[in-house]
Amino acid sequence: MTGGGGGGAYIFHLIPHTHWDREWFLPRAAFQARLVPLIDDLIARLQADPSFRSFLLDGQTVLIEDYLRARPERESEIKTLVKSGRLQVGPWYVLADEQIPSGESLLRNLLLGTMDADRLGGRLDVLYSPDAFGHPGILPTLAREFGIKFGVLWRGLGRRGDPEHGGERDLFRWRGPDGRDIVLWHMPPSGYEIGAALPGAGARLPDLWREVRAALVQRAAGKHIPLFIGADHHAPHPALPRLRDILSELEPASAFRISRLDEFFQAAETAVARNIEGELRWSYGYTWTLQGVHGTRAPLKRRHGDVELYLERVTEPLNALARYATGRDRRALLESAWRTLVRAQFHDTICGTTADEVTAAAERRLTDVTAYATELRRDALHALVGYDPDTTREQAAVTAPVLVLWNPAPRPRGGVTVADLTFFRRDVLVGPPSDGALVREGAGYRPFALYGADGRALSVQILARRITQERTDAARHYPDQDEVDQVRVAIRAPVVAGLGLAALHAGAAVPLETSETARLRGGGRSLENRFVTVTLEPSGAITIVDRRRNERYHDLLQLEDAGDAGDAYTYCPPARDRVTRSQGPITVRRLAAGPFVAALDARWEVMRGIDARLLIQLYADSPIVRATLEIDNRSTYHRLRARLPTGLAGDPLTAGTAFGVVERPAVVFEPGAYPQETPVRTAPAQRFIAAARGSRGLALLAPAFFEYEWTEQGDMLVTLLRAIGDLSRGDLPTRPGHAAWPTATPGAQCIGTTRIDLAVAAVSGADVDRGDALSHLWEDAFLPLHSLWLRDAATLQLAPLDIALEGHGLVFSSVKPAQIGSPMVLRCYNATQRKAAGAWRFGAGVKTAHRVRADEREAVALVLEHRGNVVRFVAEPREIVSIMVT
What we know:
Blueprint: E1 11-16, H1 28-48, E2 55-56, H2 62-70, H3 75-83, E3 87-88, H4 103-120, E4 127-129, H5 139-145, E5 150-153, E6 171-175, E7 181-186, H6 205-217, E8 224-229, H7 240-250, E9 255-258, H8 261-268, E10 274-277, H9 298-326, H10 331-343, H11 347-351, H12 356-385, H13 389-394, E11 400-406, E12 413-427, E13 449-451, E14 457-458, E15 461-474, E16 477-496, E17 501-507, E18 521-523, E19 526-528, E20 532-536, E21 542-546, E22 551-556, E23 558-563, E24 580-581, E25 587-593, E26 597-607, E27 610-619, E28 625-633, E29 638-645, E30 653-657, E31 660-664, E32 682-693, E33 696-710, E34 715-723, E35 731-732, E36 735-736, E37 752-762, H14 765-770, H15 773-782, E38 786-793, E39 803-806, E40 810-817, E41 824-830, E42 836-842, E43 849-852, E44 860-861, E45 864-865, E46 870-875, E47 880-885
Parallel strand pairs: 1-8, 1-9, 2-3, 4-5, 5-7, 6-10
Antiparallel strand pairs: 6-7, 11-17, 11-38, 12-16, 13-14, 13-17, 15-16, 18-19, 19-20, 20-21, 21-22, 23-24, 23-29, 25-26, 26-27, 27-28, 28-37, 29-34, 30-31, 30-32, 32-33, 33-34, 33-37, 35-36, 39-42, 40-41, 41-47, 42-46, 43-44, 43-47, 45-46
Helix pairs in contact: 1-2, 4-10, 9-10, 9-12, 10-12
């Protein structure tokens, strides 16, 4: 038989599989009710029919976790099938979106998947990603960090008529930014469901096979070709062995095998493969790319980013340090928190391409992660400072309030810090009233100062006060509920060592600091320190003057609104669209005037149905302009964005991505050239975007993920929300055809108030080129000194933590408890294209240090210098470096 790619003998590897959206247009429980009988049937079929050699369970171990929750008695049968290779599981825990979660989240996903697969009997060593909406350029590196050298993907790669960018061939070597690569099989335009109809085709099979064969053979780089048999939520077809036999009869010159995915790669990896590199986000004209998902349900994405940041850079490091310093081990609870978070990163879930009830369930998961993270953070800090709530309750000794500061960055930092303090007013009794109940009363807030270890007084700027209630907990006692004065304060904190601790004791008040170094002015509609002047414009936008470089930036953060007739997958402007830019008038109120923090509050109506509040803050010792937008949205079917003109027309933009940055030019295209799907001009970013040339440049910072557009005129536009009401529409001019089952999603209109935290900083071309400067700015904006206020502290014993990362262009990524054995793993990456000499310096010293992969395997011993205080290493360009220490 001959087909579209011509004749010849081929070896077709039939790969039976299912693609399982854990939740999508239906909630998880509905799909769980379908998953359990599917796996029941699969186990029976694999056990009864040896010719049904294997089954690929979608590359994610969470499906086995879900199944065994309902069928725990079948665990031994699952393990037998996995060990024999007949049931292929992993390497992911969840098929997540790969651009919205942080790089560390992607690593945790692979760690959990590898852990689960190893426990079950063996992992699929293929980075399988059949349905993600594009892929970051770091993915080959992450695969090799887990000992994986093969990959499969669909969307994001392939341009018809352009062999350099896929579409014309199926096998590639995809090189990561550090130079390591994987052998990548690129799915055909119809994706993983190309062979789904073959087993049940009956008399239509010869014609159908001719079409399928042509699509596969015309792109084949070699004689070995995988043929995926399955689709969304498809059970294994009982006729699969018979299909193999019939295809052999139709095409006797070729061989047909029911294969494991890794068997195909082992046979095919010697085929000539074309080299590709970089991120994969453009498959227009080949298959739907669906990049509109990055702006869908933006409030959910922002909340996820806040929770992810808190777990990744506050709770987990504190627990790693507590294990390192005190031996206290909470890894099991941390794993529960991470599993809960990663389950919210399933690609449809975090992209917002789901029914409203699925989004509601994701919100509940994020609430659970916050609860885990809050408790574990408090417990770790108590251990690190020697504070025992039970002993404090039971002892009669006099206690005094203490503000504990922890530095979440591995470099010394101090400066202006904002913290919330509470002062006791009276007991709030819980339970039946009794005559003998003693209600204590206190003085509440009184003017005070904070004193460091050297006895020097730190004056306090009061930012806000309110009466509220506070509960303190202890393991051996009921919670203690109190009415308190809550006071938000700003101080100029002393320098705190990298990942280190400091304690400030409350004492007698002193006058506010008024030195020249603390000079910060706030009046009218302007704020000013020695770095920058910020002015609120009548439209609600801001003007920034960079006083260091004498550069001016106008109309920053100007709000503009336009229609959105699209769905959850695809942005679509209405036929008669009109952009409305905020014109004010605004009402301005001064909230703080220094000397440490100055703040202005502006409120206005953007347009009918959209109100805005903008809070601008400037710290005395920082060039960062902190901005918080609150949007009250009562309008539907529109897209609201903030525009930041840079004056750098024609330049590329630098965007943060997982473990590094990527340079992107403005997206320019002719819409008529893409009838299947109109490309979007927006793109995903992690933590920051920046454009700079010489002394002029601007960086926009956010806590985690956000969507932006970079224009040819040099304007940044940040998506604040997309308000749409349908999961999928079939009548869009920007994407003809349904991308999912039609489902109303009124929750995706984003009605109500949403908060957006941003920061803006003037930067230079040298700052962007340095590699670590933007990351340091981001840390200073969203990971300042972390505070814990202890109203009833006795004598504290602070762990002597002092851990610093040194090396030009090296960016800190994480400190975490090791999976097994050694107390902790420290990770950084080289953000530059230059080799970097790096070092970790430990104030208390370490006993051993090993360089490991991100999966914490293949340990290589490192030499300790200066009695264990220094661990040196070399980071190749764009390399991830993980160091395990005891």
